[in-house]
Amino acid sequence: MPSEHETVGAYALGILDDAEATAFEAHLAGCEWCAQQLDELAGMEPMLAALADLPGSGSTPAIGDSLSARPSPRIVEKLVDEVAEKRAQKRRRSFYMIAAAAALIIAGPLAAIAANSGSSGGGGQVTASAQTTFSAMAEKKSATDPTSHASATVGMEQKDWGTQAVLELKNVKGPLKCSLVAVAKNGQRVTMSSWSVPDWGYGIPDAKTDDAKKPLYIGGATAFKPNEIDHFEIVTFDGKKLVQVNA
Asked: Where would you find the membrane-spanning parts of this chain (predicted)?
C-alpha cells in the first residue's frame, strides 16, 4: 500500500476499500497537509459520480466503467501534484493582485496627476493639475542650491496612506534624468517620482522661449508621513544632487 500522503487522491475519489479508507482516516486526523489536499480534491467525487450517471447511448456504460475503475498510484499521485500546482498558481495570482492594489493606492495621487495633465507648447513641462494641486497646498518648503543654482519648492499634504507631494523645479538645464527622493528621519530613502529634463530646461529666467521659462510641476507620493520626512533631494540618475529641501 502506498504511504498515507499518497492516498489522499484515492480517498477523495472514493476508490479505497474499507480497510484502506479506515487507515487513511486515522492518519488524516493528525495530518494537516492531507487535510488541505483533501479540501481541494473533495469536490471531484460528486462530479465524477454525476458523469457516471449520464443518460445516453451505449457509450454511457463505458464512461461509468472507466470512472469506477481504480487508477494506478502514479495517476493518483499526478492528480494530487496538479491540484497542488493549481493552488500555488492561485496564491501567486492573489499576491500579485494585492501588491498591484497596494502600489496603486500609494501612487494614486501621482497617477491622477499624470492622467489628467495637460501640456504647454512644445516643452510640455507644466502639468495643469499638478500646478493646481501645488497652488492649493498649505505646506511648502523651498531651497536653492548655491552650486547648481537649481531652485525647488516641495508642497506636501498628509494622506491616510502617507504624503502626497508636488515639486516645483526651476533653473535646471538638460539633458538630464532626475528623481525626487524623500529621505526619512531614520535614513531610509524613497524615490517619489522621476522625469527627464529637455535641453532647454525648466524655469530658466533668461530663456529665449516661454516653454523654457516655465517651471516643472510634478507630483509624487511616499508612505512616510510628513513628520517622518527629514528632507527631499532632487538628484540626477548618475547621483549628482541638484538641490536639497529640508522638510
From this structure: 95-115
Residue 18, classified by CB atoms within 10 Å of its CB into exposed (0-12), middle (13-18) or buried (19+), is exposed
Q: Dump the DSSP string for 90-111.
A: HHHHHHHHHHHHHHHHHHHHHH
Count the neighbouring beta carbons within 10 Å of the beta carbon of residue 76: 21
What whole-number distance in Å separates Cα of residue 147 and Cα of residue 168?
Answer: 19
Q: Write down the number of H helices and E strands in the chain.
A: 8, 8
How is the chain split into domains, by residue range? 7-53, 127-246
Please give the model's pTM, rounded to 2 decimal places: 0.51
CB-CB contact of 225 with 163 (8 Å):
yes
Task: Please name the residue that has the C-alpha cell 475519489.
Answer: 13
Q: pLDDT digit of tens for each residue in the chain (247 aa)?
A: 456 666 777 776 666 777 777 887 777 777 877 777 777 665 555 554 554 444 544 444 444 444 444 445 555 555 555 555 655 555 555 555 554 444 444 444 443 333 333 333 333 344 458 888 999 999 999 999 999 999 999 999 999 999 999 999 999 999 999 999 999 999 999 999 999 999 999 999 998 888 899 999 999 999 999 999 999 999 999 999 999 999 9
CB atoms near residue 38 (< 10 Å):
17
Listed residue (148, 164, 172) closest to 105, CA to CA:
164
Residue count (the chain): 247
- With H, G, I as helix, E, B as strand and everything else as coil, classify residue 199: coil
Tell me the CATH number for domain 127-246: 2.60.40
